[in-house]
Design brief:
single chain, alpha+beta, conserved putative lor/sdh protein from methanococcus maripaludis s2 fold, Elongation Factor Tu (Ef-tu), domain 3, 3 domains, six-stranded antiparallel β-barrel, four-stranded antiparallel beta sheet, 8 helices, 22 strands, cadmium resistance, zinc
Length: about 400
């Protein structure tokens, strides 16, 4: 029995040793396989450094990979086929710009408060709010007793003049024939002169009301537009009683408007008459060039700033009074160290960047921008004078960079 028991223990020991050997052999085989796999990766330039180095070294390798993402490998033929043009970053004279918030207003030189020149009752209104009217167009018709009185006065003066002239001619003849005394002749001549003065006075009163009264006759008065304009306010209706002080209409020629803004005393030296400005509206995505036409001599009581005015042409009526605008005033001109065309700047990963020509293509460089003028922009950081950058076609390079980044992430 003891011999059998001893034999069983011996067999169990041999089996255990065999299993342990198999386990070690499998582990060793896996290590060899992993080593071979990583060795293969090294041959292809993929991830070997991340496996062989510590976590910190792996982060450094990831940074180098990110740097590679900003590069585009393109041949000269590919660059030409893409329509990419190059320009050398260089010093350039640019003007500094000072910006102010402003507002579009009516051109007061082309805005009229139309009032009736006589009192009366409105018979008809022929112009509506917002309507474009032409010079001489009838806006409203007013029936006025005052016109009737003035016309009666003129007619009476005309009759008195005719009678005074007949009397004068008769007395003159009688005096020349020595039938009447010279005193009668002189009195007739004085009466004629007074009648002429009275008629001239009556005619001036009628003509002061306007030519519309002369054309109409009777007691009708036509309120007419003084120039081509738009009706921006209307304050009368049919049947309303009006007087010479009634502000019936406000007309404004919107083909020309003012852009006004306030300038504090410390910036007045930068804003002078004749200086070039750019007026822009972020909401309308529009921009127009202009010049400072007027700088106020007094400071406002509320804001302690001088009012500055710019006259803008407004052919399509896009610049509407009341619109808030941004006004950029060009001040002194200085030479900047590095400037490139604005077309060279693209937004890459939410940062302004340029594509710099390299021996094998282009490198993407984030830049810090400064002043802008005439299609050029100052580069404060990220670029040196003499670097060649892509101008026309830079957006194509941005698109290719985005495709490359997407493929790299996958």
């Amino acid at each position: 029995m003891q011999n059998k028991h001893t034999l069983v223990l011996a067999i169990a020991a041999v089996v255990a040793l065999g299993i342990g050997g198999l386990t070690w052999t499998g582990s060793s085989a896996r290590q060899v396989a992993n080593t071979a796999e990583h060795g293969s990766s090294d041959e292809h330039g993929h991830e070997s450094k991340a496996t062989a180095h510590s976590e910190e070294q792996g982060d450094d390798a990831h940074g180098e990979a990110d740097a590679e993402e900003g590069r585009l490998t393109l041949s000269a033929d590919q660059i030409k086929a893409a329509g990419v043009l190059l320009e050398t970053a260089a010093p350039r004279e640019l003007a500094s710009v000072v910006r102010f918030p402003g507002e579009i207003r009516f051109d007061e030189d082309r805005t009229a408060h139309v009032v009736p020149r006589v009192s009366g009752v409105v018979e008809s209104v022929q112009a509506n709010l917002g309507e474009a009217v032409r010079k001489g167009q009838v806006l409203a018709v007013i029936a006025s007793q005052q016109i009737s009185d003035l016309r009666s006065e003129q007619q009476a003066a005309q009759r008195r003049l005719e009678l005074a002239r007949v009397t004068f001619d008769r007395e003159k003849q009688l005096w020349q024939d020595r039938i009447s005394a010279e005193q009668d002749y002189l009195q007739a001549r004085q009466a004629l002169q007074e009648a002429e003065i009275s008629l001239a006075n009556a005619r001036q009163k009628v003509s002061a009301i306007g030519t519309a009264v002369n054309a109409l006759g009777g007691n009708r008065y036509e309120l007419r537009a003084p120039f081509d304009a738009v009706v921006v306010e209307k304050h009368l209706t049919v049947g309303e009683v009006v007087s010479e002080a009634t502000n019936a209409f406000i007309l404004s020629d919107l083909s020309q408007v003012w852009a006004t803004f306030a300038v504090p005393p410390n910036d007045l030296g930068k804003v002078v008459t004749g200086r070039a400005v750019k007026v822009s509206s972020p909401d309308m995505k529009a921009e127009v060039d202009g010049k400072v036409g007027y700088v106020g001599s007094l400071l406002g009581e509320q804001n302690r700033a001088a009012t500055v005015r710019i006259t803008l042409t407004n052919p399509n009526g896009a610049w509407r009074p009341g619109l808030f605008v941004d006004i950029a005033v060009t001040s002194a001109r200085d030479e900047v160290a590095v400037a490139v065309p604005e077309t060279a700047v693209q937004t890459v990963e939410d940062r302004p960047s340029v594509f710099v020509r390299s021996p094998d293509g282009f490198d993407t460089r984030p830049v810090t921008l400064g002043r802008r003028e005439g299609g050029y922009v100052e580069v404060l950081k990220g670029l040196e004078s003499g670097d060649q950058v892509a101008t026309d076609g830079s957006f194509t390079l941005k698109s290719e960079l985005g495709k490359a980044s997407a493929e790299h992430s996958h």
